[in-house]
Amino acid sequence: PANRFVADFIGFDNILKAEVVESSASGALLRLGGDGPLLRYTTVASHPPGAVIEVAARANAFHLVPQVADEQCFAAEVEGVTYLGDDVEFRVRVGQNGLIARISDAEVRSAGTVAAPAAGDRIHLRIAPDELIEINGSMEESA
């Protein structure tokens, strides 16, 4: 997306600040929100370590997993839950970022929990590297 407005307009529910930890021709390793998790993302852009960028992710790109199983998984604290028919929308806190994850009810039930997670619970989410999309022109050099 060209900017935050376009990202929001075309359905990216989450716009997250991230610091580039390392970068290569095939992608980058990002730290979300200053003290958040490390995640890989696929990119053609190359950024120096320390650069701060914004990445966008759709709410339905996240998956609920029973535990942190690989580097694309992370823990999040549930701040709120909304039931939307066949989906459950979780508002969660990850480091300094708040984000929205929309998970199918069937996936919530198969994630190994007896009851659906509620506010205050800790859950584990996963997102594929190609589901994080950089917002063009968002790079800032860190001090």
TrEMBL record:
Domain of life: Bacteria
UniProt GO MF annotations: ATP binding; transmembrane transporter activity
Organism: Geodermatophilus sabuli
GO cellular component, one term: ATP-binding cassette (ABC) transporter complex
Domain Transport-associated OB type: 58-132
Name of the protein in its database record: TOBE domain-containing protein
